[in-house]
Amino acid sequence: MVQKVRYLVGVCLGVSVVFAQGGSSTRLYEKAQRYTQQSVWDSAILVWRTLLSIERDSVRRGLIYQQLGYIAVHKGDSTEALRLWEQALRYRPEYPVAQQNYRWLRQKLPPPPPIPPPVSAYEPPPPPSEKALPHIGSGPPPPPLKPPFLSVARLRN
User: Fold this and answer.
1) Shortest CA distance to 81 belongs to which of 100, 54, 57, 55?
2) Measuring CA to CA, how many Å separate 48 from each of 22, 34, 72, 114, 129?
3) pLDDT at 23
4) What is the pLDDT of residues 53-73, one digit of tens each?
5) % the chain with pLDDT above 90
6) Domain ranges of the chain
7) Which has the closest alpha carbon to 95: 67, 127, 73?
8) What single DSSP character describes residue 23?
9) HEC per residue, 41-80
10) I need a surface site. Which of 21, 98, 138, 157 has the fewest CB within 10 A?
11) What pLDDT is recorded for position 14?
12) If you classify domain 2-108 with CATH, what class do you get?
C-alpha cells in the first residue's frame, strides 16, 4: 500500500514535467500540481476542473482525469476515483498509470451488486408489492358507497 502511494505521488510529480512545455495554461498546471502535492484537495480540484474546461487535447484531458482520480482516492471516494480513471482511459486508452490504478482499486473494492434481469415481454410481470398504489385496471372497481342508515326516531328529533 505504501509503495502504491509513493508510486502515485511520483506520477503526480512527473505530470508537472510533462506540462512544462509552455502555453497559456502552464501556470494553471503548476498551480494545480502544487495544490495536489500539498494535499490542498479542494483548491486542487477547482484548478484541475478549470483546466478540464479549457483543455482540448485528449492526452492532457486523460492526465487531468488521472489526477482527479488520485485526489478522489485520497479524499476517500473510491467509487468516484474509479469513474474518473475510466474517463482517463477513454481519452487515453494506453495510459499505463490510469490502467494500473483502475485495476488496483477494482481489486480492492467489493464487486458491484448484481443487476436484476430485465422484464421479459413473454412472461407476466411480477405481482405488485403490498405497498404499491392501485392504478386503473389493477382489479375490480370498488362497490358504490351506501348512504348511512338513520333510524326514523333520530330523524324526528
Assistant:
1) 100
2) 17, 11, 12, 34, 47
3) 57
4) 898 888 999 999 999 999 999
5) 37
6) 2-108
7) 67
8) S
9) HHHHHHHHHHHHHHCCCHHHHHHHHHHHHHHHHHHCCHHH
10) 157
11) 45
12) mainly alpha
What pLDDT score does 144 carry? Answer: 73
DSSP assigned state of 141? P
Which amino acid is present at 14? G
Distance CA(62)–CA(44), nearest Å, equals 16
**Averaged confidence pLDDT in the chain:** 77
In terms of Cβ atoms closer than 10 Å to its own Cβ (0-12, 13-18, 19+), residue 2 is: exposed
For the chain, give the number of residues. 157
> What's the predicted TM-score (pTM) here?
0.57
What nine digits make up the cell of 25? Answer: 495554461
- Between the CA of residue 72 and those of 21, 65, 66, 81, 133, what are the distances in Å? 27, 10, 10, 5, 41
Cell 410481470 sits at which residue?
125
The single residue listed with the C-alpha cell 328529533 is 157
